[in-house]
């Protein structure tokens, strides 16, 4: 009994001590374990973050400037934060994060020499095993970068469509007709050889490079600059419209309409506005079950009459853009229904925010084979991987801002991250979808 009493007293004392320690942690806003630790395969630099990094030592700080990345947070009282800053992959949901990495994740930087300009609209054409990438101006151009993936490292060349298309900024491959569809934000009446162009949608045969325009106005109004696009289950093309073209100098026309998300029906030529609620609609995708629409809002960016080159002359050209750190940097979801006499007319409702970017503003986004969303960071050097409810799973960290992403390879387990001043290749187990079987509805 005396031993039992002693044991109970000791246990009670330890419990009380633990309770005081826990209480003290809560009161002092401190934590007793490191924020991060090394984890995962040795083929890459992988770091796991404890409890989503939601409790840091009180000395932490972060500059609200949108150009400051998540890794720009300072945590002087916890040296493990250095692991996050130096990681290739950062995992928040450890189980699902390790699953998507697989046994041998790898990241390749600097495979493709690039200028310090925006790279956008990556499109993989499986039959050619080539990746088409647009180098966004200014001064702008009518040539498209072509990466021949039949070689390692890929062989870079430049191609021009016939007729030339000035400054696409969003692209996709449609396996139903074997064509590349482009959202084109270049708008200029004084291009070489007398070419004139309004912003709109076009498609290109990647084998012959023959180009065809589909739409370039809404009842006589210019689009500000179609940014990204997606084809829905009934064949309609949805696209977001922003004035990035004007702010980076590849359009000589300011916006004439509210920035919006539009739907174009190729069978009839009809153009219909679908949403005007976002500040800067950007990346756009449908869920594989056809029930939800996802759109990124880069609303912390807006037009500025005063040009800037960014800190340290970050860009090689002036941008007429300003940043508001408290502006929208979100991904929204809508429910999608079909109505009308043919059951094909889309109705979107129940808008809700599902994700706010850790840094920068969300740009291009893609849906993986398993339904996860892979979100380009825009201003930020990396991408976020979230589930379809917006739960953060992992991050890929690069040495350059990422504007858009695209899978390639026979197993679609290679992903290319393209952006400002760089193109990065990643190999892991998060497969892209077979586009010929994308929709499962």
From TrEMBL:
The keyword Electron transport does not apply. Coiled coil: none annotated. InterPro entries: 6-blade_b-propeller_TolB-like, Oryzine_lactonohydrolase, SGL. Residues 198-417 form the SMP-30/Gluconolactonase/LRE-like region domain. Gene3D superfamilies: TolB, C-terminal domain. Residues 1-18 form the signal peptide. Pfam families: SGL. Keywords: Signal. The keyword Signal applies. Transmembrane segments: none annotated. This is Six-bladed beta-propeller, TolB-like protein. It comes from Metarhizium album (strain ARSEF 1941). The lineage of its organism: Eukaryota, Fungi, Dikarya, Ascomycota, Pezizomycotina.
């Amino acid at each position: 009994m005396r031993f039992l009493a002693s044991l109970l007293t000791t246990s009670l004392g330890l419990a009380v001590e633990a309770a005081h320690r826990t209480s003290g942690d809560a009161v002092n806003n401190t934590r007793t374990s490191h924020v991060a630790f090394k984890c995962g395969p040795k083929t890459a630099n992988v770091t796991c973050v404890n409890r989503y990094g939601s409790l840091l030592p009180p000395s932490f700080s972060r500059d609200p400037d949108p150009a400051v990345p998540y890794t720009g947070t300072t945590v002087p009282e916890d040296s493990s934060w250095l692991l996050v800053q130096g990681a290739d992959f950062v995992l928040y949901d450890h189980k699902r994060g390790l699953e998507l990495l697989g046994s041998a994740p790898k990241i390749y930087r600097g495979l493709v020499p690039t200028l310090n300009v925006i790279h956008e609209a990556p499109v993989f054409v499986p039959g050619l095993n080539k990746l088409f990438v647009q180098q966004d101006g200014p001064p702008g151009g009518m040539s498209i970068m072509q990466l021949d993936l039949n070689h390692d490292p890929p062989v870079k060349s430049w191609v021009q469509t016939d007729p030339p298309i000035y400054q696409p900024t969003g692209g996709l491959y449609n396996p139903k007709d074997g064509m590349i569809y482009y959202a084109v934000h270049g708008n200029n009446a004084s291009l070489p050889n007398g070419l004139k162009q309004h912003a709109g949608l076009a498609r290109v045969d990647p084998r012959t490079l023959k180009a065809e325009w589909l739409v370039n106005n809404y009842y006589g109004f210019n689009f500000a600059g179609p940014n990204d696009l997606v084809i829905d289950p009934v064949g309609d093309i949805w696209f977001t419209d922003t004035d990035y073209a004007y702010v980076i100098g590849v359009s000589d026309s300011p916006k004439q309409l509210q920035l919006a998300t539009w739907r174009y029906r190729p069978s009839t030529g009809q153009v219909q506005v679908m949403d005007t609620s976002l500040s800067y609609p950007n990346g756009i995708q449908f869920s594989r079950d056809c029930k939800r629409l996802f759109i990124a809002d880069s609303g912390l960016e807006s037009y500025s009459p005063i040009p800037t080159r960014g800190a340290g002359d970050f860009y090689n050209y002036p941008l007429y853009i300003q940043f508001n750190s408290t502006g929208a940097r979100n991904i929204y979801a809508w429910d999608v229904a079909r109505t009308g006499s043919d059951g094909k007319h889309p109705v979107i409702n129940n808008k809700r925010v599902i994700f706010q970017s850790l840094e920068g503003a969300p740009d291009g986004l893609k849906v993986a084979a398993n339904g996860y969303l892979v979100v380009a960071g825009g201003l930020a050097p990396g991408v976020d991987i979230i589930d379809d409810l917006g739960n953060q799973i992992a991050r890929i960290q690069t040495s350059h801002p990422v504007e858009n992403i695209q899978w390639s390879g026979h197993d679609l387990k290679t992903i290319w991250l393209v952006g400002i001043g760089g193109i990065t290749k990643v190999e892991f187990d998060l497969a892209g979808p077979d586009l010929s079987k994308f929709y499962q509805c």
